[in-house]
């Protein structure tokens, strides 16, 4: 959550074991230009998150059935409730019919966006169907493999940063994870939403071979080493 | 594992829930100057790791009973086997009498050192009693809360670094974890073993209020931000 707007980034790797990795988009955007833009990102069981997106998507596509649609809810809070409720229903549905260990169907979602008349808002939605909202004190959320990329976010996040700088920070954070963990991989999808624009302006994908990303990754690695070198060494007694 | 020797660092926080945190040393060293130096670090169940250390310690203190002692084994490999066997026995012992879920008694150990006649060696010992050895390809081990501090190790580790520089890297790695996770906290115990010295030379504790550590933590945070700033921003279309 920045002063300028909301920034989202997700990787595209899913896995069901080391020999079963695939590439799937984990970011979905719904919009009605001039009225609302909503972005959903997911981590966890792919069948669950795809079902949630499909249900929400079908609802938003049939105009006559728009009453319970993300394109019709009056506020971001109601949107979060709808997504959370859908998530809980999908998980419960799987858990009741098949395997009892519902934990394997778990998923966690991040929903952010703006609906005309309200400010941009950002939510973290738990598999149990409850959710929390980002605030000044906790201005960003991560889901999935969060730990490797967190230290740089904690240290360098600044609500006043622009989108160009935010892109750099997010790519560096993802790159730190990538270097240490096989479950996260490029390409990276991004959506940078400008407050009060109520339309999609900056949305796209950074490919693994993207020259900016590769220069950044290399440059960051070199700069980190140089930075560490620049700090005073310990003095052994 | 460095060309200069072996470097060890451990934090001192243990917890059994958020309202039950304590400070315990997680590093133990045994030595016979001129013959051997061994260092053991632990992560996991504190009762288990303390029992392992106590058993190994008692054996190494009674000269008449030295046959199965860490101070008598002929090689680092045999030392690793002895520690691993002790760990497995302690875990099995707890699991058989009390709670069946032996996973709660789990612990993972790092053992490193040198015994006269052999090179310095470094082992990671699993709760099942098996172990692996560090090599050129995998020159360092972490146990416990490993993820936050890993990216900087991956990026900045260099086998040719000296002890003064290694201290800096280890403190920065721990500090990244500290900033993100409540289960890791200063003071930090360290032991830097010089190859072929066969004695303890650099062993001590970095307190939370240590001025070098605090300057480093502050300097690293500032430098990280400056480093990120120095890299080119993304250009939005």
From TrEMBL, chains A, B:
InterPro entries: Ntn_hydrolases_N (IPR029055), UCP009120_prtse (IPR016545). It comes from the Bacteria. This is Peptidase. The lineage of its organism: Bacteria, Pseudomonadati, Pseudomonadota, Alphaproteobacteria, Rhodobacterales.
